[in-house]
Specification:
mainly alpha; elongated
Length: 173
Amino acid sequence: MIRFGDSWVCAQCKPSYLQMLQQGLTRPGDMRFAGFWIRLGAKLVDGVVLWVFSFALGFLASLPFAIADGPATVDPYQGVAGTIAIMLLQISAPVAYTAFFISKYRATPGKMVCGLVITTGDGGHVSAARAVGRHFAEVISSLILFIGYLMIAFDEERRSLHDRICDTRVIHK
């Protein structure tokens, strides 16, 4: 064991402990968990950012199909390709948004604004695959009348259903 400040760290754990401190994290036992209201604020900010992003992306994606269709005709399949492309973008844009920001910056823009980060249960970095899984677990939290989100208010570690499914924590930086 090596003494590091007021903590004792094993020699094998020292590099990861130093990396954790450089990233601004505290020891796993010292995590300050984010509560319901600040996470709701972060979610609202993310919702606005995603809405603007999805609207712009959908508009740009629909332009080639609108131009190619020309004047309205009686063809019942007119615009089907454009509709499918826009639907795929509307599904994949939030997934890509979540996976990119969580895996690269450990937080979405809304969480960054609120000074929050997402970590694994032991304080580690969340991978892109886990971030994608967390996104789809959030869909489950929403589908059950947002009860998955309400769990934050009653859990001692302030975990939602999707945090429990993916073994993640949302903590203050």
